[in-house]
Amino acid sequence: MAAGESLSRGVPDAAIFSFEVWRPQALLDPLLDPAMTERVEALPVWPAFSASPQFRQLTDGVRFIEMAIDADWRKATRELTAGGMLFAAAPGERAVLLVATENEERLRKLHEIAGQITRSEARKAGREDPVRAEEIDGLTRWTFNGKEAHTIVDGRLVAASDPATLDAVLRTMKAGEAGTLAASAPYRAACAAVGDEAVAMAYVNLRVLRSAPAVAQALAGSNENPLAALLVAGLATGLKQADWLAVGFYIEGRALVARTVLGPGSGPADGPASVVLPPAGRAGALPNFAVPGQIAALSLFRDLHRFYAAKDELFPARTSGLIFFENMMGIFFTGRDLTDEVLARLGPEIRLVVARQDYPAAAGAPEPELPGFALVLPLKDREFKLILEEAWQKALGLVNFTRGQKAEPGLILDRPQHRGLTMTVARFSTAGLAPEDRGDTRFNFQPTLAMPADFAILSSSESLARKLVDAVQAGPATGLPLGGSHTALQLDGGRLAEVLRANHEPMVRGNMLKEGHTRAEAELAIDTLLALVGQVRQASLTLQGGNGPSEASLRIEFTR
Amino acid sequence: MRTGLGACALVSLAPGVPRFLARAGASAGRARRDDTILVVLQLSGGNDGLNTIIPFADDAYARSRPTLRWTGDQVLKLTDELGLHPRLEAFRRLHDAGRLAVMQGVGCPRLSRDHDDAMRAWHVADPDPDSRETGWAGRAADALSGLPSTGESPALFVGSIPRPFSLNAARAVVPSVEAVESLRLPSGMSGEASRLPAGPERRVNPLIEHVDRVSAIARNSDGLIREAASGGGTHGGYPDFPLARDFRTVAQLIRAEVGVRIYFIELGGGGIGGFDNHANQAGNHDALLEQMATGMAAFVQDLARDGLLDRVLLMTFSEFGRTVAENGRRGTDHGAAAPVFLAGGGVRGGLHGVHPSLTELDQGALKHHVDFRELYATTLETWLGLDAATILGDAFPTLDLWAT
Amino acid sequence: MKEIEFMQRDHRTAPRPGAASSRREGAPRVVDVDPEWAWAPFSPGGANRWDAAAAAHLLRRASFGFTATERQRAVAEGPQATVARLLQPVPEAADFDGQFDAWEEHGAGSAAELAAWWLRRMLESPRPLVERMTLFWRECFPARTDRVGEAGLVVRQVQQLRRDALGRFDVLLRNQLHQPAVLLAWGGGQNRRSQPNHQLARALLHGFTVGPGVAGDRDVTETARALTGWFVRRGKLQFVEREQDPAPKCVLEQDGVHNLDDLLTGLAHHEATSRHVARRLWRTFISEVADPSPTLLQALADFLAADRDLAATVGRVLSSNLFHAPESRLARAKSPVELAVGLARGLEGVVPTEPLAGALRELGQDLANPPSLDGWPRGTDWINGATLALRCRLTASLLGANDRYKRRLDPAAVARRHWAVEDGPARRFIAGLLFPDLETAARPEWRDFAGDLRDWAIHLTARPEYQLL
After folding, report:
1. How many independent structural domains does chain C possess?
2. CB-based contact, B45 to chain A, within 8 Å
3. Longest C-alpha distance within chain B, in Å?
4. For the segment B206-254, what is each residue's pLDDT rounded down to a tens digit?
5. Is residue A255 part of a domain?
C-alpha cells in the first residue's frame, strides 16, 4: 500500500476515478509465468494469430526494443513497473498515468526509443515531426502528438492528457499532502475498506459522478423490469446513494478476487431493495447446494411476499407477462390471493441449482442439450404442501391440454418414491417415437415436484430433483454461514464448458447467422469461448447489503 | 417551423368546422396538409367495458360484481346511471371539454371468445377471419397508396410489439417504428441529393420519377422530424410510460407532416394482453385504464395546442368486453360487447348509443348494439374519404358521430 | 382484364424493334413490339452494346447482384454464354445445398431462422439464379408460416421449390400440392368428402395456376372436390381413400377429372396457366412499369407451354432482345431482399443474416410470411417516404455506419482486392460496382468527395436510383 499512497499523493483530488496497482509483482507473476504463455498458445485462435503479419510485426518490434534496452521483455516489464502504477481521470477528459520504476536509466532509454519510433512513423506518413521537448524548471517535458504531455522525474513516468493537467500533477507532487487524492476523505476510506492485502484498487467518487446528467438518467431508469429489479435489488440503490465505490483486487493462490465496497452515504435501501432484502443484522441467504454434476448454484434472500405486496408502487406499468402470470396463478391456486395466501407461506431463502441431467435413452440427447434447473423454496407450513401439489398438477394438466390442442405430444404423470418420499414426475413418452423426433427439445424437460422436509423442489429434471432430495435430507436444513449475504452465486467452469461443448453444433450455427461468420470462423469463435470458460475452475459472487457498506465479492479460480 | 405550407393550409379553415365537411368532394389534387389522420389504439386482452363505463345504479351490476364493483360514490358520474372508472379522471376532463365520445355496446355477430380469433375478427373486419389475408387498416393503406401516388407512407405502427395483423396489406408496406429517429435518414444523407444529369432512362421511366419524388419527400421529412423531435414545437405534458411515449411519437410525426394517414398504437403489451384480467383484476385494470386516459388526454391536448386536433381522429378498440359476472378469482372472463372511445376529429362529445342491458345477456356477456364494421365504415368513408364498401367487402351504414 | 383497358388507350400495331410505347399519365405503358424480335436472342454489335452496364443489368436481375469479377467474366463471355452458365448445374451446388438443408432442418424451426438461412444461401450460393428462381416461386406459392403453424414445414416447402426451380413446371406444381405447408396455409389440412375445401381450391386456381379471372365458382367447387382425400396429420401428408369424392369432376371445361393427379395435369397444361406464369416472369425479369401486349405475352407463354421447361423459358427471357432493350433497364424497384443481398454480394461479404431478416420484414418482405396470394408488393409500392428512410438506414448499416451488421462489408478492402488503391480509382471502382449505368455521369464527384470509402458507398446507395433494379 505504501507505493500506492505515494503515487496518489501526486494526483489532485479533482480525480473521480483511479485505478492503481500497488503490488505489480503479485499481478505480473502469474501473467508473465511461462505457464501462462503455454495457456495462451493453447487457445484455438493462437495458430492463426501467431501466423498473422500483425503478430510478426509485434514480435519484431519487441525483439528490437529488447535489444535496444538490453533486457528481455519480461524482465523489463517487471523492472519498469516495480514501484506501482496509477491511472486517474477527472471530469473534462483529463487523465494522468503515473508509473514508478526501479530502473530510471532503462525507463529513459525506452522513452527515447518510443520517441524515435514516433518520429519515423510520422516521416513515413509524410507528416512533420510531432515530438517536442521543452525545458521548464529544470525538467524536460515531452509531447509525442502535440496534445498529451509527459515527463520523467524521480524515477517516475508522469504522463497527462494535456500540459495543464501535467502542471497540476507536478505541482501537487511538490506541494505534498494538501489537495491530493491521497488526502481526500472518501479515497482514504476506500483504501481502508480495501485493506492492505489488496494488490490493486479501482476507486470511483460516486457523489461527483452522479452529478453528470447522463449517469443520473441511467440510474433513474433502472427500475423498469420487475424481475431484474428483484435479482439485482440493492445494487441500484447503492449506486444511487453511496459516496464512493472501491474495488480491491487480491491474489489468493490460483484465484483472483475482486471485492467491491460501496462507501457510506447509502442509508436504508429504497425501492425494491427495501422490501426484499434481509433486515439489518438478521438472517441471510442459505449456503448453496453442492450436488453431483452441479454447474451453477444461486442462493438468494428475497422476501417475495413483501415484494409482491408492494408491486403497485414498485412497478406501475402492467406488462402482459405480469397479467398472464396472475391469471395462471389464480387458476393454479384456486383463486387464493397470490400475495397473502400463497407467497406469504414461502420463506425468503430461495435457492436455484443448475446441473447436468440424464435423458431417457430411447429419446436420444436433445438438441440443444439443456441442463436441469431446479428451484428450492422453503415452506413455512406443511399444510401448504397439498396446495402446492394441487397447483403443480393443474399446471401440468394445462400444459398437456394446450400441447394437445396444437397436436403436440403430452406428458405422462408418475408418482415414484425416492427415499420414502413421493415425488410427482411428468415425462414425455417415448412410445412410438418417430426417428426424426429423437433428440427433440422436449426431452430436456421432465417437470418434477418433490417436497422433502420443509422445502419444495420444483425441477425441470427428475434426476436433479432426486439429487436435491438427497442433499436436503442429508445436510442441515438451515444455517447462516454466509454472514448476512443476500446473494451467492457459484459456477463451475469445467462443467459449464462441458454443457457448452455438448451444444457446440447449435452454437456454431447460431454464430453464423448472428455474426455473419463462415463456418470455420464460427467454429473458431465458439472453440475460443469454450477454451476460455474451461480456464475457470470455480467462480463465485456474493453480495451483501444492510445498513453498513454494501459489498460484492467476485472470486475466480483458474485451473492449474 | 410550419410557416410554409402547413400553416397556410391550417389557418384556411375556421376553428370548429368539422374537417370532413370542409373536405367534401375530397380529391387527390388539393393541398395535402388538410388530410385527415386516423389514430387507432388497440387495448390488448379484452377490456372490461363494464368497469370502464360503469352502470353504478344498476342492481344487476352490483350483484354481478361482489368484489370488483364501484359504487356511485366512487365513480366519476357522467349521468345518473353511468359513471367513469375512478382512475379515469383524465377522461372526465376530456369529456367535460366535449372532446371525448363514447360509443356504447360495440361488437359484432358471432364474435369469438378466443383472444386470437376475436382479435383477428376486429383486425380483418370480419367475424369469420380465416377468409381474409389482410387487415382492414392494411386494406385502407392499400387504397391510400393506390391513389395517384404521393410517395408518402399511408400507414404506420408505432410501438415495440409485433405489428398487429390489422395492418397487413396486400401491396402497401406498413413499417413499425419505436421512435421518430427510425424514420430519419442516416447521418450524412440528409443533405441535398446531388442530381445526376438526366439520361435517356430518366425521361421515360416512371419509377425514376417516383424514387426522385420520394427521395425529396424523405429528405424534407428528415428535417421536419428533426425539428419536431428536438422540441421545436414539441410540448411536454406526457406522462412517463410506454403508451404515452408512443402517443408522443405519433404527435411528433403528425407535426412533422410525414403524410401518414393511419397510425396504429397499442396498450397491453401484445401477446395475451394486459387487459385479460382473469384474476386480481382490480389493481391491474385500474393501472391500465389510467395509462390509457392520461396518455390519450396528453395527446389530445398536445394536438389541440397546435390546432391539429381537428385533423386527427382517435379511436380505441379491444377484442372483446368481459363477462358481466366476476369469476371466483376476483377477475372476469372473456365477454362480448364493450365501449369504444373516440376523440378529436370534430366528434360530438358525450355518450353515443345506449348501454347494453345487464340482464339480457349472450352467454353471460353484453350484447352489442353497434357492429364494429359500422364504426370502421364511418372512419373509412366519412373520415378518411375512402370507399368503405370495397375495403370492408360489404356496405355498412355509417354512424353520425360528428358535432355539427 | 387490365391490359385490354390499357390497349384501348394506348394501342400500337407497328412493330418497332427496341421501342416501347410512350407513357400516358396514370396507366402502365404497354409494350407492343414484334414478338419474334422481342424474344429472339440478343446479339451484341452495332447499337446493341455488350458492356459492363449491360452485363450488370443481366446479373442484377438474374443473380441478386454481382462481384466485380463476375461482371468481368460476363463481359468477356458475352450474353448468351453467361446466361447458359447461370442456368447450368455446378458440381459444388449439391454439397452446398445438402449442407444448408441439414442446417435448416436442425434449427429451432422458427420463422426468423428460416429467413436467416435462406438469406445466407442467397449470399453464398454457387447457383444464384436458382436462389433467384426459388424466391420467384415462393411468391407464386406464398404459404404463410403463421398460417401453417410450423416453420419446419415451410422450410421443406422452400427446399422443394429450390429443387424444382429450374425443372419442369408440372413437376414443380405437383410437388407443391404434396407439401404439407401448402395445404395447411390455405386451410387444407383436412379435405373431407363432406366438406370440400374452397379456400385451397381458390388458391390453386387463382394463384398457383390459371390466375385471377379465369375460373368460375363452379370450377372452384369442382376443384375442391378433386382435392378431397388429402390430409395433413402431425405434419405429414396422408391420403385417406374413403374421404375421396370418387365422382368425376369437370374443371375449366375439362371432364373426367378423378383425382388430384388428373386435376394438376390439366391445370399445368392449361394455356391460362402458361400465361399467368409468363406474366409473373415478365414482372420479375423485364419490367414493372410496362405491361406486355397480349401477343408478346402469348409468345412467352407458348415457350413455356411447349414442354414446361423452366430453365429453357427463363434462359429465353434473360437472353432476349427485349430483356436487353434500354427500356428494361432500371424498370423494376428493388425488393428489400434484392436491395440488401445485392449490396452484400457486390461487396463480397457475408453479413449477419438474422438481424437482416428482421430489417427486411420491417421493410415489407418477410420471407416467412408473404402478405397475400399475389406474393410481395412490387414497383412503387415498395418505396414511400417512410420505407425509403428505412432502406437508406439499412444500406448505411450494412456498409458499417454502425455495428449492427458487424461491419462485414468493407468497400476499401474490396477495392484493394481489385487493384484500386488510391482514393480516386477506389471511388471510381465502387461507383462502377454500385452504379454501373451511371459510372461516367458520376465522374465529377469522385474527385472531390470528402470522406472515406465507406462514406462514399453510403453516399452512392442513398441516391434515389439505387432503389431500382
Report:
1. 1
2. yes
3. 79
4. 888 889 889 888 888 898 998 888 864 445 789 988 999 999 999 999 9
5. no
